Amino acid sequence: MKKFHVVYAVWGDAFIALFQQLALPNLVAQIERLDAADRPRYSCKIYTTSGDARRLRESAPYAALAGLADVELLAMDDAAAENKYAMMAEGHRRAIAAALREKAVLIFMSPDSIWSDGMFPVLQKHAENGKRIVLLPGLRVVKEEVAPLAAKRWLSADGTRLKVSSRELIAVALEHLHGLTRSLIVNSDEFDDRWPSNLDWKVGQEGILARCFHLHPLLVDPAGLESLPTWTVDDDFICRLPRAPGDSHIVADSDEITQFDLSAAAAAPEPRRNEDVSLFRIAAWAANHATADQRRYFKEKIYFHVGERSARWEAVERESDRAVRTISLLLLARPLLFDVRAYLSRIKILRRIYLSFKTRFS
User: What is the pLDDT of residues 53-91, one digit of tens each?
Assistant: First the structure.
């Protein structure tokens, strides 16, 4: 039977406070949802600092979690990390190494996220059916607006458990989308193609259709990995794994599993509306920043929805299909396009030289 390591990397006052208040109670509810016979298969590994570990041990949600599953607080005081991403990557590398030693499957959680109820049985079923990788996107919401709302609506009276359905989670997200997510909505006045890691289409208040280059590797079986990733797990980790066709599963419907990240409003970019949506610019970005795997992810339709999907989704699906086909063709044609661009550039240079000589000697 497979073992599972549920992994967090979390440190610092702001993230520890949010983790204790919402994410940790959400984890307690997820573990509690498992059959009692399955709980011993789950170990929770929290990579943090020694000072933050002391704070976590004193919290009621931590005590509740320790009563349900094996929990380790692993200090990373020795990590020489120049920024938060490097620190997170170091925590994840240590988690991957531990999973390889113990022949466990990894579940990478975020300390600033809330997940829909019942995610672990779904992931367990995929792992037992031979899936080595489960990927999904998420939405980003405004922390200052959603954190108090989540605590009021979904947190138990003793503050140790937080449970929410996928559809209720999406309904709240649609009302409180963060500026980073709003900047990816193609059919809005805020779309910004400077970093189009995902393209989203809003379908009124029914939901969002997403086409994503970047997906979060939620579940990963690292067996056979020969070298640890050098950066974050959504960067070079997956491409290092030995894989076969059919090893991966993309969560394409929020009813299966969904989540949102709570981010400070100040983290939103300055709004910048382009005159038009340039599929050529998006293709150029993808050529430089998306791996072959991520270009395949982009072809998958992913649905975030609060109810049954109405006929309104069909027009949005067609629009997104056209965009994906065009961007995919531009990616295929990129070498030819750059050859043509270089040829035209040389023609312009030669013309300027000719005109310069013509002016000088006429």
Answer: 999 999 999 999 999 999 999 999 888 767 888 889 999
Q: pLDDT digits over 91-150, tens only?
A: 999 999 999 999 999 999 999 999 999 999 999 999 999 999 999 999 999 999 999 999
Per the confidence metrics, is the pTM higher than 0.70?
yes
Q: Which tops the pLDDT comparison, 279 or 177?
A: 177
| Positive or negative torsion for Cα 6, 12, 15, 21 | positive
Q: Are strands 42-48 and 113-115 parallel, antiparallel or unpaired?
A: unpaired
Q: What Cα–Cα distance (Å) separates residue 201 from each residue in 179, 208, 220, 258, 290?
A: 15, 6, 29, 17, 20
CA neighbor of 248 nearest in space, from 225, 287, 215, 224: 215
- Rounded CA separation 303/310 (Å): 12
Are residues 21 and 57 in contact, defined by beta-carbon separation less than 8 angstroms? Answer: no
Question: Could you count the other beta carbons within 10 Å of the beta carbon of residue 117?
Answer: 18
d(CA 344, CA 249): 44
